[in-house]
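Input record (Table S2, row 810):
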Amino acid sequence: MTETATSTHTDSVQHLVPLLDRLTLEQKAALVQGADFWTTVPLPEIGLRAMTLSDGPAGVRGPRWDEREPSLNLPSGSALAASWDVDLAYRYGAAAASEARRKGVDVVLGPTINLHRSPLGGRHFECFSEDPELTAELAAAYVRGLQDNDVAACPKHYVANDSETDRFTVDVRVDERALRENYLAPFERAVDAGAWTIMSAYNAVDGVTMTENDLLETPLNSEWGFDGVVISDWTAVRSLDSVPAAQDLAMPGPAPAWADLVAAIRDGRLNEADLDRKVLRVLLLAQRVGALGEREPREPAPLDGPAFAREAAIEGTVLLRNEGVLPLDASSLGRVAVIGQNAREARTQGGGSATVIPESVVSPLDAIRAAVPGADVGFEIGAVVQEGVAEIPLAHLTNPATGEAGIRVAFFDADGTELFAENRRSTALVWFGGDAPIAASATVVFETLYTPAETGDIELGFAGANPGKLYVDGQLVLDDSPVIEGTDLGAAFLNPPSITATVAVEAGRETAVRVEFSRESHGALSGALSATLGIAPERTDADELIARAVAEAAASDLAIVVVGTNSKVESEGYDRTSLDLPGRQDDLVRAVAATGTPTVVVVNAGSPVVLPWAEDVAAVVQGYFGGQEFGHAIADVLTGAAEPGGRLPTTWPAALADVPVTEVVPTDGRLEYREGLHIGYRAWLKADAVPAFAFGHGLGYTTWSWGAAQRTGDTVEVTLANTGHRRGKQVVQVYAERPESAVERPERWLVGFATVHAAPGETVTATIPVPARRLAHWAGEWTVESGAYTLRAGASVADLPLSLEWRIAS
Ligand code: BGC
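Output record (beta-D-glucopyranose complex):
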């Protein structure tokens, strides 16, 4: 223990110094690196057990990626943000804590609080909003919800990881004001809420990779008083230069980049005090989550997971347009046409590390059928959305070894000796940590008996980043390697390319299917494997699919078309290049609407998509990636059993060409945030451009009259009355304007919000904290200009009936 280190320790770790003094240099070096993919190193001699870290953030996957250990699949980040409901975000965090405890997880790797700088960002679905204030408030609530239950939050990715292209190396150039006022602001609020950890990002900011960046010290430690652990994004620690930086825990571990840590301290290249500082923080985290010493962590309140997932999905469902058709009058519906692949195979979450495996998923089709029992509900796929293979449903599979539903997976070494085998209940498998001897295996074999429901040709194949051989009834039908596009192995791993062969099958006849994957080593991912056996979409002519849907719609009283994206569009590891719906979905909606049958469109996407036919349909509902209860939530909103609770957390463009910020591809390794402060609605206002749907927009089933807004101290009170016939929810939004500012400002910016509920005829008051800091700009420090500000309140950035003046004295 050196003098310098003790003197720089924050008060919160002083009591751990005696414990630190008992550790050898080797033990200390081990403690600041993972033991494996998801756990930290235990030291039983000091009463320290291993801590387990796990993705989320929309639920908790747990240390194994395994359908036999399912997780609650909550709505994705953009859906949570659409609720604008801080209390809901707190309960969402508490629900994650409950899942974490059930799965033995100490640190949930979330929330993801990078910004929707551009709708093209690949992880847009996982992030909350384009607005730092909305993101910050929800982030703080999520952190508290977790940590009040002794589970650590890990807000990520610090900082400026707002898109995915070249994400490991991109050097983001962002001016100081935009960095402070936009991108750092949510992290600041999360730290203020007490976050026990933060994840450092892959990218660089101003030329220095984040795990070595001074931003880890200032503002995080020195200004905000963070006393927690900076956990690296997986493999983001690149060299020993991150040791003197405020980078604390290298994951996964042992980290190759820190292999030389002990030697470097012994020979004086590195300072032991820097290591001690990290160790103390890791020990403090262990104490906080109940992994050090006697104290048992708190038991979260019991959770009805599906009920909460349904409520959260309803609160995040945005009614974008309604020409009077919603809520549906179920009693008047004789026949309903439900159309769209996503109606039957709902997409409940985006792709990548955020994936959790739900026990079951409620599709819109099933939920609508249940919600209108008196109606005859028909289904047509209408257009193919899926790209590549999707897993084969369990009901059609028999494990040849056990005779039970599922598949047998066996692992062989290079000599052909079977090392390990397991019985699985899914054909889309990922080993990313866990018990299977991936690194030692040369071949991994899937075997199952497939009993199809229908006779015909299917596109059978496999996906993965390894070559494979597919045998059907003993015949070799494929011997090939899927082609990996791009250089992001993580993306190829989590969302792998696929290849297929056309295979004739017979209804009810068992077909023996066997795939042999030859495992190729993929560097940092050599202990991991992703492999799927599956079926690609049928090759029916696209016009024919539309024609069938049109016939079904024409014969019905109502058409409900569920459109959406697929796993190749919204995922970690790459950005979008278009905002169009994949495949022929736009043609499909136009054709269905043209039948004259009232048409309701439900959008199943985590990010904005272009809806060129929006004016031609009776209603549009944005359902986001609504989690495992997505179908129920949609049916509840359509029938009026529930109020659509959501308001857009992000501006919705009419066309990609209108979007102010689309630059997500670095030039010569650099990505310049040229737009400065002006992202999202700020940029639309600056350009004087009108989107399809404004930030904050969302309709309900009742009407409101706005009363008055007044300010007392740090609080704005807004009164409003429900003038309709139903109970309703309103999100009261307060924005500031400062036209006479001496500095550049957004034309208008969100300073506070609150949700209210009111019965018909009831007047309610929304109480919204708006401290003066919300008016501040960054000028080397937070500075509130003196003089007049206008505060405006209403239902979206474009609908602000109330205003008041706020004078800041000089
Ligand atoms: C992602 C993180 C995630 C980590 C562990 C990374 O590739 O960027 O968000 O927590 O993997 O899965």
